[in-house]
Design a protein that fits this description.
The protein contains 5 helices and 2 strands; from the N terminus they run H-H-H-H-E-E-H. It is mostly helical and about 140 residues long. The N and C termini lie far apart (about 80 Å).
């Protein structure tokens, strides 16, 4: 039991720090998604988690023989790289340009929505749901 508690005490600061870094990463990722820019999010996760984190975790846990401690050190290093890349992308965002792009996209989406509503209003009277749950045309319902 003491060995488990000792291991727990050893790992919790690493695990907590890793999750803190991931919280920053996901906040920055949410910002990038909101901007309509998912590529930086995907690239930073690919580089940080898979190219750095997984190999580093393997090397530290197996080659350096640190076991579970090496696993968490490696993954934490990967999370640090991921968080750093995303923070740089967010910090270098040209917010006025992004805001203008979002406003244009929203205006186009609103215009498309109005167009779709017009189409539905034209088609809707010709289509009704029959009592059996299937679709029936206006002519079929008149018969």
């Amino acid at each position: 039991m003491q060995a488990v508690l000792h291991r727990f005490e050893e790992l919790m600061p690493l695990v907590g720090g890793s999750y803190l870094m991931m919280a920053f990463f996901y906040s920055a990722g949410g910002s990038m998604n909101g901007q309509g820019r998912p590529l930086p999010l995907a690239l930073s996760f690919l580089i940080g988690a898979w190219i750095v984190g997984v190999p580093l975790a393997y090397v530290l846990s197996h080659t350096a023989q640190l076991g579970i401690l090496g696993l968490w050190l490696g993954m934490g290093g990967g999370y640090l790289v991921t968080m750093t890349i995303m923070t740089i992308f967010v910090a270098k965002t040209k917010w006025l340009v992004v805001t203008e792009q979002v406003v244009k996209k929203q205006a186009a989406a609103a215009q498309n929505s109005e167009y779709e509503e017009e189409i539905v209003e034209e088609i809707e009277p010709a289509i009704h749901v029959s009592t059996s749950g299937g679709l029936a045309s206006q002519d079929a319902l008149a018969a």
